[in-house]
Each structure stands twice: as C-alpha cells, then as structure tokens.
Amino acid sequence: MKTPRYSVIVPVYNRRDEITGLAESLLGQTEHSFELVVVEDGSTEPCGDIIEDMCRRGLDAKYFFKSNEGRSIARNYGMERASGSYFVFFDSDCVIPPDYFRTLSNVLDTAPVDCYGGPDAAHESFSDTQKAINYAMTSFLTTGGIRGGKVRLDKFVPRTFNMGFSRAVYERVGGFREMFSEDIDMSTRIRHAGCGIGLIREVPVWHRRRVDLRRFFRQVYVFGMSRITLRLLYPDSLKAVHVLPALFVLGCIALILLSVFVSWWFIVPPVAYFIAVFFGALFATRSLRVAFIAVPAAAVQLGGYGIGFIRAWFTKILLRRGRDEQQEIMMRKGK
What we know:
seven-stranded mixed β-sheet; globular
C-alpha cells in the first residue's frame, strides 16, 4: 500500500457526533493522499465503530484507544504511530472542505513550508449562535484577526484546529506539551527552532465552535489565563493584542461607574463599539439574527479572555503563585 503524504491526527474525547462529521468530510475529499489517525483519549463513549464503518467505505484510517491523559499526549501518541511525512491536525468539531488536500498539495509543491496554519470559518449549515461565535473569534474588531486569515496585530501563530508540520519538524522540536494553549507553545518552539511558518489562506476549515455562550465563556476564560503561562515560558511572547481584552474589561468597568456617578456620556464609547460589532457582523454574515447574537458573543469573547488574563496576571505575576509551572511544563512529555 502506498505511504500517505499526510497523516491527519485527531484526539477525541466523547465526541461521537463531531468525529462523524469530520470523517464524512474527509471521505469526501477530492484528493486522498492522507490517512486519518484517531486517538481516543479514554472516552466513555468511544467512536471506534464509526471509524471502522468509515474504513469499510474507503477511508484510510487508524483508530487507537488509550487511557485519558489529555489532548496533547493523545496527539503525540498519534504522531508516533503515523505513516505520513507531513502531520496535519484538526479539532474533532471541524468539517473539512472537499478540495482541502488538493489545494494544500498544490501550495506545498509550489512553496514548501515547514509548518503551516489555515483559517477557520462558519459553514452555512451551522446554527446562528455558532456563526455569531465564529464572528466573535475571527473578527478584527474583537480579536485583531489573531486566529488567522485576516489582518493581524501580531505574528501568525498556527492553531491545532487547522495546522500542519513536517515529520522533520517533529523530530527536531518534539511533540506537544500537555498544557492550555499547547498549539501556541508548539508554534513558538517551531519558530524558535528556525523552521519556516506560513499562513495558507486557501485551506480554511469549517469550525463548529461552542454551541452556547456559557461554554464559550469558559473556553476564552481559559485562553486568557493560559496567555500568562505562555508569558512565563516566553517572556517576549506577550504583545499588545493580548493585553487589549483586559484593558477593555477594566475600561468598561470604569466607564460604567463614571456614567452612573458623573455623566451618562461616559457610556457612549462602549455602546458605539458594540454598534460597530453589530454592523460588522451584519455585513459579514448578511443575517440580522446572527448580528444580534454577535453582540453578546463579542462581549463574552473580550470579557471572558480579559477576566482570565487579569486573574492569572494577579496570581502568577503579582502574587508570584504558580511560578514553578514553567519548570513543570518543561518536564512534561513533549519537551
């Protein structure tokens, strides 16, 4: 059997519905120069039968079940058992456009790169809430285009919802570390090793996102906290774009208090900002309902990240608690 060019590595934990959608989209690719490597990380609802069915339908796939140790160790487990010369990473809640691998091969054949990342978007079949959350996570107004595919306020950093690197990079840098924002850590280590990193805009994925704002808040809150952990690991990694959500939270609190105790005019700037978010979402999605949901989604995006950032800065930087976390991370599998 011909060795695949790509090994698609996906860690899974109780995501039967998601892995079905992902596998179906891989089965429908116009180029099949890849294998799928699914690593079940101790799930109580395993998806081995789904992968077995996909194999019968023609998908080149491997399935492994292991004890629960975290998604980074699961990805490393998959890389150790992969056959391809290039590793590609998707989240289980992604759906892959049909021409993804055909386009990827054309780009890499023309302009090879050690590591790449691609943007994400919302498919037309996604719910209005998912589309609104997608807008909140990708809009320049809310994140500065930090998730790829748009104008950016810092260097492009591939994320594991749509990321790939060569086997040579893996052999040089090692695997993922078990930590929050492990993909940012991995991208930073790849860059520090002198490997080339590029954004390939032509290979987006459709990312389903969190299905409600409560879980979305928890997700971005963790992102905010992990940014401080990354700062401890890489002191030069903290950029202005990472601090802006915290400043947004503190600024809104100050303006609300001033509007109550001094003049209602102080509430105008945040109101104007959210009006801009509404019309930006309306222009991007052509949906009034999505635009309305995008306003609280943007508030959750900035508020959750900012609160997590402030809390971690206060405990780890100001109070110096958990400062040994850097050494602990460096000792974990994947160094």
